[in-house]
Amino acid sequence: MAFEILDALKKDQHILVEAGVGIGKSYAYLVPLLLYNHCTRKPAIIATSTIALQEQLLNDAAALQERLETRCEVTLAKGQANYLCRKRAEEYLERPDAEMPDALRELIDKGFQDRADFPGDFPASLWDRICITRYGYPCRNCHHSCAYRRMREAIRFTDGIVICNQDFLTAHLQKLFRGQDGLINRTVEVVVIDEAHNLEGKVRSATTDRISQNGLLKMISEAQNDVMSTEIPYIQKDINTAQRAVRAFFQCLQRQMQQQIADSTQDMKYAERFFFKDDPEALALLSSMAEALDALSENIQVYSTYDLRRGSRYSGADDFYTKAEDLLDMVSDLGSSLLWIERRGDRAELVYCPENTQDIISNLYFRGDVCTILTSATMTNAAQGSLPERYAYFISNTGFPLDESGFLSEPKPSPFPYDEHAMIYYCDDLPHPREDHDAFIQRGVERLIEILEISNGKALVLFTAKTDLEEVYMALQQRKLPYKILMQQPGASQDQVLSEFRNDVNSVLLGTGAYWEGIDIRGKSLSNLVIFRLPFPVPDPIIEHKVSLAKDGMMDVRVPEMIIRLKQGIGRLIRSFSDKGIVSIIDPRLRNQPKERYHDVVWASIPIHNRTTSLAELRTFYQSLMDEANPNN
User: Fold this and answer.
1) Residue 255 pLDDT more than 80?
2) Average model confidence (pLDDT) for the chain?
3) Are residues 196 and 56 in the same domain?
4) Same domain, yes or no, for 273 and 140?
5) pLDDT score for 233
6) Considering the domain boundaries, does residue 413 fall inside one?
């Protein structure tokens, strides 16, 4: 992999390479990057999805530089929410209801500014009140020494390597694409994207705008306060019109969301995204709102400009003008935007982004003078066929070039001895999870208990839906099993729950969402991984948009999405050469007879080929693993 990356650098090519867990892919790109920097003195960027990997890369780079005898400045550029804002902290400490003020003052006096410097049990709710939320022009006038500001200034001129997240890199490339100054040294010619299976989602997020009723009404109020005076009372008519239009549109959105929840299957109970129904009523209300906001913002901007000549500053009016203009542009070209509804608490928000995310990624990452190296453990959607066929889903989502400027690498399989250290159990006798959901949950819980008895707990159980997770958790709690049942808690620190799971070796952890990837728990604590249901994507506006463009929505979109997620989930079990355990898939859709049409491609994509439908065989295999690990028992 390192040699292929060196060849790509020499030939000025982009490279795409799936690298299985355990091959040392971090070293495979760090070594070429450090040598490239040593020889050229040109900066480079590494972008990942998680802080954990960014911090690991910082340590890996330091260790490698000793061996390579190179001297390269490596800067970790975390997102702004990871840094303390001294101004916000001081304002918070002045409040009479400030939480733990003495302890907070002591930490600040010690110079702590990075979230990682603060104690692990520092309340997340308190951190949200004192971290940086909007870094920009006003920050230049802050009199305090700011670690984030120093970092931002340093990376603009560094000739070393910057480690950041994919959101930060995308924002940098967007600025350069618009002809502005970037966030990082603009002479960068080499970029590495690790955890690249998340790139499409990150870029889509970076190009997404959202509007809420409370947000718009607040912007109207702030802009109104900027310009309102007794001299211009007639602007109130435009304000009233805009406020009515905003409320009418969001009442329509609320009705749409509640209707979809009422009509939906079990999976949508806790869904965050819903479809925007572009019926005549909704479109008329959207247009009326956009026009009313634009008319008001134009009017306010006139007075803002007039008063600006007298030395006043009206950031509220400017922000409102920009938001209104962007919304009107979107409404005037609805065909090029993808719209949906998102739930925030009990409120509905309108979210929109360009339809052509693939073109945006291609313009930012694969055109111009930058050589882009993309890698992840889960990038292929098939284990057989030509390389373009095996990487087809990633290519279709990102526009990775298939001409001479792009190189597809043969996937690098994990060196871990999966078939010696692991076995997959799969069901062929349970009800269909969607067609008979209640029966599936009931019998699935019974099967899960049988599987947990084999390992006496020590299990991570992954769910695709929060409803399933909650139902199974309640059922397990009622059974009073001889091991602790932990459940992922909304808003709780993931580190705290995972730490409890590690320390209580026989415990069982139920999780969804982020628990499918990024969790690294080695040893006996996680020697039994259970997939409660195949991770097909739930109904989602983005997925359905992709399906509408595909020749075969199931095989070209839904199945590749499921395979990548499934590989991520199964990858939680074997994290080192010494890890051993079992995987269970409590879902009948991978049965051998009758086969679903995706049966063969799914099984071929999973790295563990040792599999069974017999619980007795699974129990015997697991016991043999434990006997090998404890030969004296």
Assistant:
1) yes
2) 90
3) yes
4) no
5) 61
6) no
pLDDT in tens, 260-289: 988 876 666 667 899 999 999 999 999 999
Q: Among 7-11, 322-326, 375-379, which stretch is predicted with the lowest mean pLDDT?
A: 322-326
SS3 48: strand
CA 26 vs. chain centroid, Å, equals 20
Which token pair is 200? 């499409």
Contact 610, 424 (CB under 8 A): yes
Q: How far apart are the C-alpha atoms of 448 and 444, rounded to whole Å?
A: 6
Which residues on adjacent β-strands are paired with residue 353? Answer: 338
DSSP 431: P
Do residues 129 and 191 both lie within one domain? no
Q: pLDDT, tens digit, for every residue of 143-186?
A: 667 889 999 999 999 999 999 999 999 999 999 999 999 999 99
Q: How far is it, in rounded angstroms, from Cα 354 to Cα 231? A: 42
- Span 480-502, average pLDDT: 82
What the block records as the tokens of 191 is 């970029």
What burial class does residue 359 get, using C-beta atoms within 10 Å of its C-beta: 0-12 exposed, 13-18 middle, 19+ buried? exposed
Model confidence pLDDT, tens digit, residues 433-452: 988 989 999 999 999 999 99
Tokens 């499934």 map to which residue? 566
Residues 242 and 345 in one domain: yes
Q: Which two tokens stand for residue 281?
A: 């009523």
CA neighbor of 18 nearest in space, from 359, 395, 365, 417:
395
Residue 146 to residue 307: CA distance in whole angstroms: 33
For 260, counting Cβ atoms within 10 Å of its Cβ (0-12 exposed, 13-18 middle, 19+ buried), the class is middle
To which residue do tokens 């291609």 refer? 362
CA proximity to 256, closest of 352, 350, 353: 350
Q: At 313, is the pLDDT very low, low, confident or very high (cuts 50, 70, 90)?
A: very low
Q: Is the peptide bond before 433 cis (omega within 30 degrees of 0)?
A: no
Vertex 611: Cα angle to 608 and 614 (nearest 5): 155
For the chain, the domain total comes to: 4
pLDDT of res. 144? 62
| Cα–Cα distance for residue pair 497/507, rounded to 1 Å | 11
263 within 8 A of 333, measured Cβ to Cβ: no
Alpha-carbon distance values, 144 to 128, 139, 153 (Å): 19, 10, 15
Comparing 498 with 342, the larger pLDDT belongs to: 342
Tell me the torsion sign for CA atoms 318, 322, 325, 331.
negative
Q: What range defines the domain where residue 128 resides?
A: 84-145
